[in-house]
Amino acid sequence: MLILAVDTTSSSGSTALLDNEKLLGEINLDSPETHSERLLPCIHFLLASFKKTIHDIEGYALAVGPGSFTGIRIGMSLIKSFVYASGKPAAPVSTLEALAKKMSFSQERLFCPILDARKGEVYSALYERRQGTLKVLIDQGVYKPDALFTQFPSRRAIVFLGNGMSVYRGKIKDYFKDKARFSSRSCFIAYEIGLLGLRLLRENKGIDSLSLEPLYFRKSQAEEKKK
Question: In this predicted model, what pLDDT tens digit does every residue of 35-49 receive, in sequence order?
Fold first, then answer.
């Protein structure tokens, strides 16, 4: 199955083309340009590099959030249009789950994807690797860091990854001391989005364009101002 995977949920945007589990190509950009400027050229370059067109894509995998409201909307709008026009299925994937999957090759077993949600909050969850799969120990959501970290086991090593890692590095060290592990891996996750999306598509859990919705854990600033 040829899959186009897209992540626009943060400044570390990425796009990947997969042939089942095999990564054919991935473009990772952390640049001042917006996703609206760079996403379509990245997709065009990937497809052209393998002499493919958008008509060859058999399924789409999209990071639906949490993350930047603007970034999520850009990726959502484009993939919705592709899905609608092609009739091919889309697989919605959590940004946090993809970050956890990226960490799961570590020797440790507990993984905390952590994204800065601003306003003194983070988007986060806690996962544990069990028999090759990720199990949710703490549900993904928006948390005050202190309220989140007090729920974590204090005597087990925990690997952190995400842009919230640097923002709250001091607090993480205060809570977990030498049990804190800060992953050196990048936050580019299009390949992981593709792998998780492939699993959903194989399980016939792909959805149409009308059913594809963003994953928000709170209202945007614009919505709050309206209220």
Answer: 888 999 999 999 999
